[in-house]
Write a structure and sequence with these properties.
By secondary structure, the chain is α/β, with parallel strands linked by helices. The protein has eight helices and 15 strands. The radius of gyration is 24 Å and the shape is elongated.
């Protein structure tokens, strides 16, 4: 087992105090009463043999769980970061009503724009197929079927009034040229499109026009909304992709429409590594990711995880819990213990969270090669830090590497150093800055993972802070 370093962070007495009856943690005043929607959800009824077996597996896996001091120990609310004014804040205590929430059905319109200085070499049908159904399928799987994005694609080109070169299209687009492009596009399309029918707007430019730069694809958020057909258009996805495009690029941009931030790191000179924050582990970090499923934190924010599926780990003692693979859901095959087909997965705990400060948490989730993560390099418990006041593009989420001295999947991974970040079966890992320890103990017949999480010296094991994992005998 690697050498363990001394605990850093809270003192022992402070850690013990977190578990005292009647102790109100320092972050409690920040939680606004009534800001969390709904009360404890009704317990789902289990039916059939598979449900009974799943219940027995869960009981066996959690038989040694530390007993909570009160009902609040099972509430997710104390770990919900407060939403701030940061652009695409990771706070999720309330929803930002300026953005459409991706639950149920949302309708998207695809408007195809040509220019006087170029004759399109492809068709709207082919450009639509570049992005759909792949984009809708991604969100359907990621949301466990709770969200459906329906594209409505025009079948003809709409001519812009000016040449493509007149708009100076580029990644860091000037406000003047961008505004001119949007005004012209809306004016050209409005006679043929009823924008009041749509929740998401895609303006797709002719990829072969001379003034089109594929690096300029982005979501434009408008301080002053555009107005058409009696509705305000607050943001537009401007698509300048080549044909064929980058994989899942439209899903990434659509994530911004739902208030998700950029998770990549953009070097000042644009020449360094862009993937140091989260590597392959979320679509908002890279559309090329091997494991692009959205973080459990994002699924909680978007409403795809119910509060009962999130466990807020409080107190200093170790807590043993059962985590389902994040991607497990309807129609997603998962393998259980000893390679047996899993059963009954989908509605259990998907995310564990430890509050580490007034604006920060550690999150724990199981990632495995299933669903949107089918090409994941490694399986295990992924650990990452979330900050609610850090704006988009500045590292609001950072994956913590449980194997800092190794890498994996070179040649395929967008950032091999983080490709083996998860804590694997039989390993333990202590987050150096916080003294929070996670131990991955086993698998259940239903395909879930049994995990123990603790804080500091009372968190189980030897309690020290280490730089890597150790396999427990």
């Amino acid at each position: 087992m690697p050498r363990q370093l001394p605990l850093r962070g809270l003192g022992r007495e402070a850690l013990r105090g977190l578990g005292r009856p009647g102790f109100r943690p320092w972050f409690w005043p920040g939680f606004r009463a009534g800001s969390w929607s709904g009360g404890p959800p009704a317990r789902p009824r289990l039916r059939g043999t598979a449900a009974v077996c799943t219940t027995m597996s869960a009981l066996a896996a959690t038989s040694m769980m530390t007993a909570p001091s009160d009902a609040e120990s099972f509430s997710a609310a104390p770990c919900a970061l407060i939403r701030t004014d940061a652009h695409h804040s990771e706070g999720l205590d309330t929803w930002n009503a300026a953005y459409p929430r991706p639950t149920g059905r949302l309708n998207a319109v695809m408007v195809f724009l040509s220019f006087p200085d170029s004759h399109p070499l492809t068709t709207p049908e082919k450009l639509t197929a570049d992005h759909f159904p792949a984009t809708s399928d991604f969100f359907h799987r990621a949301s466990y079927g709770s969200f459906s994005l329906h594209p409505h694609a025009l079948r003809h080109w709409i001519r812009m009034p000016r040449p493509s070169t007149a708009y100076a299209i580029q990644r860091d687009w000037s406000t003047r040229h961008r505004s001119a492009y949007l005004r012209d596009a809306l004016a050209a399309a409005d006679p043929r499109v009823d924008f009041s029918r749509y929740d998401v707007v895609y303006f797709v430019a002719d990829p072969d026009a001379p003034g089109v730069d594929s690096d300029a694809t982005k979501v434009v958020n408008l301080d002053t909304p555009l107005r058409a057909d009696g509705t305000d258009i607050r943001r537009v996805v401007t698509v300048f992709e080549e044909h064929p495009p980058d994989r899942l690029v439209l899903a990434h941009e659509t994530g911004h429409v739902f208030d998700l931030p950029d998770l990549y790191h953009r070097p000042a000179d644009g020449k360094g590594d862009w993937d140091t924050h989260v590597g392959d582990w979320d679509l908002m970090g890279s559309q090329f990711a091997l494991a692009p499923d959205l973080f459990g934190w994002h699924k909680w924010k978007l409403g795809w995880l119910e509060p009962r599926q999130v466990r807020c780990v409080q107190g200093a003692g170790p807590v043993r819990l059962t985590l389902e693979p994040l991607a497990a859901g309807p129609g997603v095959p998962v393998t259980g213990a000893a390679g047996a087909p899993a059963f009954g997965l989908g509605g259990g705990t998907k995310l564990a969270v430890v509050r580490t400060g007034p604006d920060s948490v550690l999150a724990f989730e199981v990632r495995a090669p299933v669903g949107d993560d089918a090409d994941a390099c490694r399986s295990g418990v992924l650990v990452y830090r979330v900050r609610g006041t850090t704006r988009s593009g500045e590292g609001p989420i950072q994956v913590i590497d449980a194997h800092p001295h190794t890498e994996a999947c070179r040649g395929d991974s967008v950032y091999p150093a983080l490709a083996d970040a998860p804590v694997a079966l039989g390993e333990s890992f202590t987050v150096p800055e916080d003294g929070v320890r996670v131990e991955v103990e086993g698998r259940t017949a239903s395909g879930a993972w049994t995990v123990q999480i603790g804080v500091g010296r009372d968190g189980g094991g030897d309690g020290g802070a280490g730089e890597g994992v150790g396999a427990d005998a």
